[in-house]
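Our preliminary data section would be incomplete without showing what the modeling component actually yields. Below, a chain of 128 amino acids is followed by its predicted structure, encoded as tokens that our downstream tools consume directly.
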Amino acid sequence: MRKLKGISGMNDFRFEELTVWKEGIKITIPLLDLAEGAHEKHFYKFAEQLRGATMSITNNIAEGSGSDSDKDFAWFINMSRRSVFECVNILFILEANNIIESKERSALYPALLSLSKQLNSFRKTLLC
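Predicted structure:
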């Protein structure tokens, strides 16, 4: 599995400090790897949809962290959580179409569930 470089030390943007963003980054690599595998098997639409949903998780956290209000930030966190749900759904579809194996979906499911819960808790904190 690939590792991301440069996610420690410099924290010039608010999102770089957020655990939910860091957890989202961790799940990005295996999801993008699955998207690449689907692309290589010529399932281009599936691959593109998974890439988009995957990128939307951390993109919404980052974008929302630049908000002027916690209410606005919470809206972006909700969008990020919805993208997690989209990724889970896509994984089920990929498995049902024999594009990935059950063990590949099952390996990512707990991390996606955990991230969804973390995002939900963070959103609630922002709205308090």
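The longest helix spans residues 70-96. The radius of gyration is 15 Å. Preliminary results of this kind motivate Aim 1 of the renewal.
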